[in-house]
Give the backbone structure.
Amino acid sequence: MKDDMDNNTLAGQYVLGLLDADERAQVEQRTGHDADLRTQVDYWEQRMLPLTSMVEPEHLPPALWSRIERTLWPVAQAAARPGPSRWARLWDNLAFWRSLAATGFAAAMLLAVLGLPGAPREATPRFMVVLVAPDDKAPGWVVQASTTQSLKLIPLVSQDVPSAKSLQFWTKADKWKGPVSLGLVKPGRPLDVTMAELPPMEDNQLFEITLEPETGSPIGRPTGPVLYIGRAVKVM
Amino acid sequence: MTYPPYDPDFEAALVACARGDQAALQRIYQAEGSRLLGVALRIVRRRDVAEDVLHDAFVRIWEKASTFDATRGSARGWIYSIVRHGALNHVRNHAREVAADDSTFERMESDHASGAADPCRQVLLSSESGLLYDCLARLDAGKRSSILLAYLEGCTHSEIASRLESPLGTVKAWIRRGLQALRECLA
């Protein structure tokens, strides 16, 4: 390191880009704990920034943004396009589940807990699921389960389904190998589902609605894009 | 230049990125992506590498958005720093022995012929107002050129010495004294 250099000069040379790879690494490491050096680096970064307005913008190739998306959100993006087996990765995408902390999601959750207009409430629900669109997290359906073996699927929005296609409802608990079909869903219509042959519903169990051929998936597994997805939350 | 030097929306966009709002990252990309690509290209001098740098920078912006600290500077500055240092790290880690690709080279040649890419001319002719431009205009030509070639073109001391046909020691002194003079002028 250039010992004879004061922090301001060192920071200035770092911001100008004049340090070699080792010196750059040292400055970056030091700014983690050396508040004075960090302040000097910030000083030069801010002061020199107006020069960037002299740089002419370059044409952005359309593929570049898609590439960034694929790196950051590989699964959610893939799910937006039809294709077999892409749904599987969405189940495991942590970033997707973390990103659900959106306002719309919270509002739908509140709606689910407080009850929906027009949705008869036979009993206090024990589990709630808000199914949201993978790309924009817009809530589309709510699941209320008043027992661990039956549930009601309630639409929040109306939806157009392409001709010769249908919506299919699936669930998968953590330890299951794959999702199990809960049947076809009519857009905009509630559906009562009995899960007598399935293990009792559990916390965090996954639910999703995919776009499938008119008579449902021919292979007993989702084949089309995930339209809505959510995890069960136990109601206290 | 018509672009606003500071847009308070970038701070909101970073906060939204930290919350997981993917559209917020896209807003930053749409607003600044093309100029950020220009900044990276001036430094790395190859379009494919510049695109890689921009890709990596946006991944980093997304991942580090929660660490942005508005008390340390503007959000726009933070974004530019990530791209610039990504480009600088690339050229410092990979000796820039590979020639610029043809299109870049031709463009820079033609820019050079017209004088448009000469950063010193640009500063002196720029309609940008602002303290930095005033202070740069007051520096002697050698100091001003050295600082601009470093910041905008990512040149090393030796590259600056070669571009300005001046001894390496002189260039190093210009940089130091130029930084000192800028600091005094900017104070």
Residues 83-234 of chain A form a domain with the Immunoglobulin-like fold (CATH 2.60.40). Strands of chain A lie at 127-132, 139-145, 150-155, 165-172, 180-185, 191-194, 206-213, 226-231, 233-234. The helical segments of chain A are 7-16, 21-30, 35-48, 62-72, 74-79, 87-91, 94-98, 103-114. The mean pLDDT of chain A is 80.
